[in-house]
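Q: I'm writing up a methods section and want to include an example of the input and output format. Could you take the sequence below and give the corresponding predicted structure tokens, formatted cleanly so I can copy it straight into the document?
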Amino acid sequence: GEGVTEAAGHLHKQGVIDYSRGHITVTCRAKLEKLCCECYAVVKKETDRLLPSYRAASKP
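A: Here is the clean output for your methods example:
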């Protein structure tokens, strides 16, 4: 399996994330969604349902 650093490096090279000093910024959410497994949609749906205030606060 891939380690966290290796996975982050791969996503960074793909232009999906930026990372520095332990902080990760998603730079292309649509691309990230395409690269991740189907579990992303399940987790997102549950997060939106259980934490609606989190979703509103995270919008740019």
